[in-house]
Amino acid sequence: MADKITTQWKGNMVFESDNPRWPSIMMDASKDFGGTGSGMAPKAMMLSSLAGCSGLDVVSVLGKMKVDIDDFKMIVEGELTDEHPKYYHTVSVEYHFYGDDLNESKIKKAVDLSVEKYCGVMEMFRQFAKVKTSIHYHNN
Protein backbone atom coordinates (compact mmCIF):
# COMPACT_ATOMS: atom_id res chain seq x y z
CA MET A 1 0.00 0.00 0.00
CA ALA A 2 1.44 3.36 -0.97
CA ASP A 3 0.48 6.82 0.23
CA LYS A 4 0.71 9.67 -2.23
CA ILE A 5 0.63 13.39 -1.51
CA THR A 6 0.99 16.46 -3.71
CA THR A 7 2.79 19.53 -2.42
CA GLN A 8 2.38 22.82 -4.30
CA TRP A 9 4.52 25.93 -3.93
CA LYS A 10 2.27 28.90 -3.10
CA GLY A 11 4.90 31.63 -3.34
CA ASN A 12 7.58 32.99 -1.05
CA MET A 13 8.36 30.09 1.37
CA VAL A 14 4.81 28.70 1.60
CA PHE A 15 3.83 25.22 0.45
CA GLU A 16 0.43 23.54 0.51
CA SER A 17 0.35 19.78 0.86
CA ASP A 18 -2.63 17.45 0.60
CA ASN A 19 -3.07 14.22 2.51
CA PRO A 20 -4.95 11.01 1.69
CA ARG A 21 -7.67 11.94 4.22
CA TRP A 22 -7.46 15.72 4.52
CA PRO A 23 -7.73 18.48 1.93
CA SER A 24 -4.49 20.32 2.76
CA ILE A 25 -2.05 21.66 5.28
CA MET A 26 0.16 24.71 4.94
CA MET A 27 3.89 24.72 5.60
CA ASP A 28 6.09 27.79 5.84
CA ALA A 29 9.54 28.76 7.04
CA SER A 30 9.98 30.96 10.08
CA LYS A 31 10.72 34.65 9.65
CA ASP A 32 14.38 33.87 10.44
CA PHE A 33 14.55 31.84 7.23
CA GLY A 34 12.59 34.13 4.90
CA GLY A 35 9.10 32.84 5.61
CA THR A 36 6.14 34.40 7.34
CA GLY A 37 5.45 31.64 9.84
CA SER A 38 1.98 31.19 8.30
CA GLY A 39 2.18 27.40 8.18
CA MET A 40 3.44 24.46 10.14
CA ALA A 41 7.16 23.72 10.37
CA PRO A 42 7.97 20.54 8.39
CA LYS A 43 10.28 19.00 11.00
CA ALA A 44 7.87 19.72 13.85
CA MET A 45 5.13 18.08 11.78
CA MET A 46 7.18 14.89 12.05
CA LEU A 47 6.86 15.11 15.84
CA SER A 48 3.10 15.63 15.47
CA SER A 49 2.96 12.55 13.24
CA LEU A 50 4.76 10.53 15.89
CA ALA A 51 2.32 11.66 18.58
CA GLY A 52 -0.70 11.08 16.34
CA CYS A 53 0.39 7.59 15.33
CA SER A 54 1.12 6.46 18.85
CA GLY A 55 -1.91 8.22 20.30
CA LEU A 56 -4.24 6.46 17.87
CA ASP A 57 -2.74 3.12 18.90
CA VAL A 58 -3.05 3.85 22.61
CA VAL A 59 -6.67 5.03 22.41
CA SER A 60 -7.61 2.02 20.28
CA VAL A 61 -6.00 -0.48 22.65
CA LEU A 62 -7.47 1.20 25.74
CA GLY A 63 -10.91 1.04 24.12
CA LYS A 64 -10.53 -2.67 23.48
CA MET A 65 -9.40 -3.12 27.11
CA LYS A 66 -12.42 -1.08 28.25
CA VAL A 67 -10.15 1.30 30.18
CA ASP A 68 -11.70 4.68 30.99
CA ILE A 69 -9.64 7.85 31.02
CA ASP A 70 -10.84 11.45 31.28
CA ASP A 71 -8.08 12.96 29.18
CA PHE A 72 -4.85 12.05 27.43
CA LYS A 73 -2.09 14.15 25.92
CA MET A 74 1.40 13.61 24.61
CA ILE A 75 4.32 15.98 24.75
CA VAL A 76 6.97 15.23 22.13
CA GLU A 77 10.34 16.99 22.06
CA GLY A 78 13.02 16.56 19.46
CA GLU A 79 16.65 17.67 19.60
CA LEU A 80 18.19 18.58 16.26
CA THR A 81 21.77 17.96 15.23
CA ASP A 82 24.01 21.03 15.02
CA GLU A 83 25.26 20.30 11.50
CA HIS A 84 23.33 20.29 8.23
CA PRO A 85 21.33 18.39 7.26
CA LYS A 86 19.74 18.94 10.66
CA TYR A 87 17.63 16.03 11.88
CA TYR A 88 16.28 14.83 15.21
CA HIS A 89 18.94 12.76 16.94
CA THR A 90 17.02 12.44 20.22
CA VAL A 91 13.26 12.41 20.73
CA SER A 92 11.28 12.12 23.94
CA VAL A 93 7.62 11.17 24.09
CA GLU A 94 5.73 11.83 27.33
CA TYR A 95 2.32 10.19 27.71
CA HIS A 96 0.04 11.97 30.20
CA PHE A 97 -3.17 10.30 31.38
CA TYR A 98 -5.86 11.94 33.50
CA GLY A 99 -8.76 10.37 35.35
CA ASP A 100 -10.15 8.75 38.49
CA ASP A 101 -8.57 5.45 39.56
CA LEU A 102 -6.43 5.11 36.44
CA ASN A 103 -5.62 1.50 35.64
CA GLU A 104 -1.86 2.03 35.42
CA SER A 105 -0.97 -1.52 34.42
CA LYS A 106 -3.39 -1.55 31.46
CA ILE A 107 -2.38 1.95 30.39
CA LYS A 108 1.28 0.91 30.49
CA LYS A 109 0.47 -2.16 28.40
CA ALA A 110 -1.34 -0.02 25.81
CA VAL A 111 1.59 2.41 25.57
CA ASP A 112 4.11 -0.44 25.38
CA LEU A 113 2.17 -2.09 22.55
CA SER A 114 2.23 1.15 20.59
CA VAL A 115 5.91 1.85 21.27
CA GLU A 116 7.16 -1.70 20.68
CA LYS A 117 4.76 -3.17 18.12
CA TYR A 118 2.18 -0.99 16.37
CA CYS A 119 3.42 2.56 15.75
CA GLY A 120 5.15 2.65 12.37
CA VAL A 121 6.16 6.29 12.80
CA MET A 122 7.90 5.37 16.07
CA GLU A 123 9.82 2.68 14.21
CA MET A 124 10.79 5.17 11.50
CA PHE A 125 12.14 7.56 14.13
CA ARG A 126 14.18 4.75 15.69
CA GLN A 127 16.07 4.44 12.40
CA PHE A 128 17.78 7.81 12.99
CA ALA A 129 17.08 8.93 16.57
CA LYS A 130 17.26 7.74 20.14
CA VAL A 131 13.62 7.62 21.29
CA LYS A 132 12.81 7.90 25.00
CA THR A 133 9.31 7.40 26.38
CA SER A 134 7.70 8.04 29.75
CA ILE A 135 4.22 7.66 31.20
CA HIS A 136 2.69 10.11 33.68
CA TYR A 137 -0.51 9.34 35.61
CA HIS A 138 -2.62 12.22 36.90
CA ASN A 139 -5.33 10.81 39.19
CA ASN A 140 -8.10 13.29 39.98
UniProtKB/TrEMBL annotation:
Keywords: Oxidoreductase, Peroxidase. InterPro entries: KH_dom-like_a/b, OsmC/Ohr_fam, OsmC/Ohrsf. Coiled coil: none annotated. It holds the Pfam family OsmC. GO terms for molecular function: peroxidase activity. Its EC number is 1.11.1.-. This is OsmC family protein. It comes from Lacinutrix iliipiscaria.
